[in-house]
UniProtKB/TrEMBL annotation:
GO BP of this protein: tRNA modification
Tree of life domain: Bacteria
Function, in words: Catalyzes the transfer of a dimethylallyl group onto the adenine at position 37 in tRNAs that read codons beginning with uridine, leading to the formation of N6-(dimethylallyl)adenosine (i(6)A).
Organism: Mycobacterium avium
Gene this protein is translated from: miaA
GO-annotated molecular function: ATP binding; tRNA dimethylallyltransferase activity
Name under which the protein is recorded: tRNA dimethylallyltransferase
Classification lineage: Bacteria, Bacillati, Actinomycetota, Actinomycetes, Mycobacteriales
SUPFAM superfamilies listed in its UniProt record: P-loop containing nucleoside triphosphate hydrolases
Site features described as Interaction with substrate tRNA, chain residue numbers: 106, 127
Subunit structure: Monomer.
Amino acid sequence: MTAAVRPLAIIGPTGTGKSQLALDVAERLGPLGAEIVNADAMQLYRGMDIGTAKLPAAARRGIPHHQLDVLDVTQTATVARYQRAAAADIEAILAAGAVPIIVGGSMLYIQSLLDDWSFPATDPRVRARWERRLAEVGVGELHAELARRDPAAAAVILPTDARRTVRALEVIELTGRPFAASAPRIGAPRWDTVIIGLDCDTTLLDERLARRTDAMFEQGLVAEVTGLLGRGLRDGVTAARALGYAQVIAALDAGGGDEQLRQAREQTYAGTRRYVRRQRSWFRRDHRVRWLDAGACSPPRLVDAALDAWRHVS
């Protein structure tokens, strides 16, 4: 495969500048043509713009973007749906002779795409049984059950993540194997994709995340959430749990006063920092990632380094 049709993935923790690097790389590629494929689960949702730091259309520099604004907030985002849709986008971009640039930080979404994850079958009856159990005992007890059956899965699924806990227990029951056994092995990435990781010093990133969180609230996150509640956000299985959105919903439910919103802002920042730790732990285990320091390099140098890695694959 020539470099002209080899995809580039730009991954890494939230707040490191992945979207801007992707735009800069796409512009530098010029006549080759490049199109961006989103790999941020919450940017799939229409109307979830401020809280996901989604690039407005006017800021996309005329570069085609895929897998943005494809779901209503009442729909459930799943890795399997994303994998199918994003893979189709990439195949079409490659067929046109352009360069797909995959950008995001949603760990399972990226790995499912690059490692061609085959998803275990689902059984509505088994799923319904575990969902009834969830309603009876709560997510904490159900997660404890997962820990007894599959400690490795419980270690990577948050104790508050009811949907993934139910899915893991369903897969274990259907396959008779640990949930992790269905995960893809890390090998040669699909389409010979070159994977760039963007990160920076923790102190610097914490400062960026604080500014980012403040900006979201100042730019109208509360109003955005209020509008989305009128479109059914509260009924959404995945959208309503997104960082920032879940915290604002709780604040509004508690009265929506200054103190409640201040706490929502603090909780959003703290939750984002925790998420960054999980992202780093996940991505750092992938030996294929070529890491760049977003804090030590100027934007032009980051573009140079990313394109050098893309052009000169060992």
